[in-house]
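COURSE: Structural Biology Practicum
ASSIGNMENT: Worksheet 4, Part C
STUDENT ID: 0417
INSTRUCTIONS: Below are two proteins. For each, the amino acid sequence is given first, followed by its structure token string. Answer the questions at the end about the second protein only.

PROTEIN I
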Amino acid sequence: MTYRSRMVKIVVLEQEGPGFIKLIQSLSNILFYMKKIMGLGIAIAALMLASACSEDTKENSTDTTMLASDSIATKALTTIAFADSVHEFGTIKEGEKVSYIFKYKNTGENPLILEDVRPSCGCTLPEWTKDPIAPGQEGLIKVVYNSEGRPGEFHKTITVIANTAAEVALLKIQGKVTPKNPEIEGPYKRK
């Protein structure tokens, strides 16, 4: 706003009367303070939200870790040996579902219990032996990878949580997905 436009507004306001000028000034002051209060309120709300989220995350991560550790700590520990921990699928076509079975053996003196088997992605689905594995016996973890909508190389991790001293073991699957051939539309369509 230029000096001249301010002068024009003041002249117009003076023609309305001194009471009108005071009313406008009061409204202007009210708006100024309302902006300050709203800004302060937004800042406080953001701080509360940030602290609530960080506390919730800390509580959840601690609880999950403690639950896994507590449930495993109450059981007798053993050892596990995998025949192989990495599988290479090679090249597969997009849309294919491929699977691999990881074999493992309880090499300890106590029953082996797999608490959980967690894939790193929703495209990987594990199935495993849920019953305790006696010492010297073997178990299986079947992993199915769905390549639908995932062209390119992939490297997925499967985390095995068990009553072993290491508590977790990592299995890996990898390979390359060739994309589906897109249909060519228009005058250049293949016949």
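PROTEIN II
(use this one for the questions)
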Amino acid sequence: MLYEILKIIHIISASILFGVGVCTAFYMLAANIGQDIEVIALATKRVVIADAWFTGISGFLQPVTGFLLLYLQQYPFTAAWTLTVTACYAIAGACWFIVVYLQIKCRDLAFVALNTQTPLTRQYRVYFWSWVVLGIPAFTALIIVFYLMTNNPLMPYTSDPGLLH
């Protein structure tokens, strides 16, 4: 029963992690294309909140449930598959921490521009485009993780971890 609960939590949190990531990226990109400072300020504010609550929590749950599932299945932590998934997840996570910092900076600068009725600064654009660039390896790494999670010939999917022995 524990295995099934962890598996459901793992799948749901992976869906939230990826889904919220894609949606917040679209939301922030769409807001910035429009050039309306009020829209940009509100979008960056909401993106920071969504990433903190949804992406942050699901990002924490993923390795916890993932390693517990591996343990229950007695799958080796040093297997190439496990190391590859962990490395890709670490790349995505490292990018995410920087991206959240950049989102906070963008939010703060957007509200300064909104409150002072001035254009967005060059620094805002640097932060924004850095955010865009970091999204590419993060997205790619998570696509690889999803591929590996659904295409591991060495790990049969079963509801009974005892069947793997």
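ANSWER KEY EXCERPT:
Q1: Helices lie at 2-34, 37-73, 80-116, 122-150.
Q2: The longest helix spans residues 37-73.
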